[in-house]
């Protein structure tokens, strides 16, 4: 289920509802109104509004949904499933925002103490150590 809340700052708030382990999970994202995601969201909203026209009155005067509208309504009411990885990613993003550590993590990972830099350093050290040991072994061998 998607919802839209237009704001004056040119942003569109998109709320998606997922099903995770039998629970309803709502993901809210704010994007620029000019982005692809916002345009596709607005287009989908227009499609949903035009797909469910007013139903024709029945003999008793009570409105019932027509065949096509009721089918679309049933299809649209299904929630998307969310995988464990997606849920973990969502939880991690929420945690970073709550704790206010987004910038700190970006700076830390960009600098000298980043994981990739440390890994590359350890690989270089290991390679140099191997070369030193190989040279020692080769020098001890007698031709």
Automatic annotation (TrEMBL):
Q: Name one GO cellular component term.
A: kinetochore
* Localization in the cell: Chromosome, Centromere, Kinetochore
Keywords, A to Z, come to: Chromosome, Developmental protein, Kinetochore
Indicate yes or no for the key word RNA-binding.
no
Entry coiled-coil feature ranges: none
Q: Which residues form the BCNT-C domain?
A: 62-143
Q: Which Pfam families match?
A: BCNT (PF07572)
Q: Where is the composition biased (Polar residues)?
A: 47-58
Q: What does this protein do?
A: May play a role during embryogenesis.
Protein name listed in UniProt = Craniofacial development protein 1
Source species: Herpetotheres cachinnans (Laughing falcon)
Name of the gene this protein is made from: Cfdp1
């Amino acid at each position: 289920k998607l919802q839209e809340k237009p704001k004056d700052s040119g942003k569109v708030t998109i709320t998606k509802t997922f099903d995770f382990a039998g629970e309803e999970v709502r993901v809210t994202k704010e994007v620029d109104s000019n982005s692809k995601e916002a345009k596709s969201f607005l287009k989908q909203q227009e499609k949903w509004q035009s797909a469910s026209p007013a139903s024709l009155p029945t003999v008793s005067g009570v409105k019932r949904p027509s065949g096509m509208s009721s089918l679309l309504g049933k299809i649209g009411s299904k929630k998307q499933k969310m995988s464990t990885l997606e849920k973990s990613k969502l939880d991690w993003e929420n945690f970073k925002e709550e704790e206010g550590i987004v910038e700190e993590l970006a700076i830390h990972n960009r600098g000298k103490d980043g994981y990739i830099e440390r890994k590359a350093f350890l690989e270089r050290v290991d390679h140099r150590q191997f070369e030193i040991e190989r040279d020692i072994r080769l020098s001890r061998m007698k031709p």
